[in-house]
Design brief:
Layout lengths: L7 H14 L2 H8 L3 H15 L4 E3 L4 E3 L1 H23 L8 E7 L1 H8 L3 H7 L3 E7 L13 E5 L8 E14 L1 H7 L13 E4 L8 E4 L5 E4 L6 E2 L2 H9 L4 E5 H10 L3 E2 L9 E8 L8 H13 L10
Parallel strand pairs: 3-4, 3-5, 7-10, 7-11
Antiparallel strand pairs: 1-2, 5-13, 6-11, 6-12, 6-13, 8-9
Helix pairs in contact: 1-2, 1-3, 1-4, 2-3
Length: 308
């Protein structure tokens, strides 16, 4: 049977009702159709999927492993449909789950502190937060929004800028006391430089020469990590030099826990912070739009300037 000829949402609804009511007859009563109609529909569904979903006996129905997996996904799809219908109703308040993906350091330091006030303002919204520095596919991860740092790849995603931050090379006072403070680019050969393991990371650090030319120098020794927050924490422990975004290192610099070095060679490159999502603003679910608007209005990236 061609997919266009199958009302899959109806199949899901009947199957979910059978599972939740515990029988064909009880599902038929709830749906106001005959038990034979329910039985035929379940049979057609299993035939189309090529898998048995229910083991039937005279006393009870039992889900097969395939049936259990199909039930879980079907129940979620039907819940999403109900939510979508509620949200397109004029004046509907934000309601439901918002799945959020964020880079680790920004997520821990800037996003998590906003969560309590957001939930207080929107008590019918639930947040599902995942912090990772790996770039994920929103569709594959079933995420509604993602907060990303750096240049955006060309895609079907819509982006809203939250701010920007330049990068700075830093180290702990203890590390500099042991190894010396680099003042020339040649000094880098005597230092450990911490870097990132993920493939989107630029392996070489940029520096601006007196002539204005920007050169990219490879790191020496040290350690590689999978997220910016871990790099910051190891820098605080004195493991080596780190090149961090100012929004990540600003508070540590201001309190003296980290010391900027080689600022005379800082190229001033800027890392932009965006919230990205699928769809256009006018067609977003109310729950997603409320979350994005809240971020844009309340997230403030920490700043630091060598002239401050």
């Amino acid at each position: 049977m061609a997919r266009s000829e199958v009302n899959r949402s109806t199949e899901m609804e009947v199957f979910v009702r059978v599972v939740e009511t515990g029988g064909l007859s009880s599902a038929a009563r709830a749906l106001r159709i005959t038990p034979s109609a329910v039985s035929k529909l379940i049979g057609r569904l299993e035939a189309r999927l090529g898998a048995r979903l229910l083991n039937r006996s005279t006393r009870k129905l039992q889900l097969t492993p395939e049936g259990a997996a199909f039930y879980a996904r079907s129940a979620q799809v039907l819940a999403d449909i109900d939510e979508a219908e509620r949200e397109v109703t004029a004046g509907a308040a934000p309601r439901g789950r918002v799945r959020v993906n964020s880079v680790v350091d920004l997520g821990r330091n800037l996003l998590l502190p906003l969560v309590p006030s957001f939930l207080a303002a929107h008590p019918d919204v639930t947040l599902d937060l995942v912090l990772t520095d790996q770039v994920v596919d929103l569709l594959d991860e079933r995420a509604d929004v993602a907060i990303r740092v750096g240049s955006l790849r060309s895609s079907s995603l819509t982006a809203r800028k939250l701010g920007q931050s330049r990068a700075v090379v830093v180290a702990s006072p203890g590390y500099l006391a042991r190894r010396g403070t680099p003042t020339r680019l040649e000094d880098l050969a005597q230092h450990h430089q911490m870097d990132f393991t993920f493939t989107r990371s630029v392996r070489n650090w940029p520096f601006k020469l007196e002539s204005g030319e920007v050169v990219y120098l490879p790191g020496v020794g040290g350690v590689q990590l999978g997220d910016g927050e871990s790099v910051r924490r190891l820098a605080l422990e004195g493991a080596g030099l780190a090149r961090l975004s100012v929004f990540s290192a600003a508070d540590d610099i201001k309190t003296g826990r980290l010391v900027p070095v080689l600022e005379a060679f800082n190229p001033g490159d800027v890392l932009e912070v965006h919230v990205v999502f699928l769809g256009q603003g006018g067609h977003l679910p109310a729950r997603v739009r409320a979350f994005i608007d809240y971020l844009a209005e309340n997230m403030r990236l920490p700043t630091w300037s060598p002239d401050a």
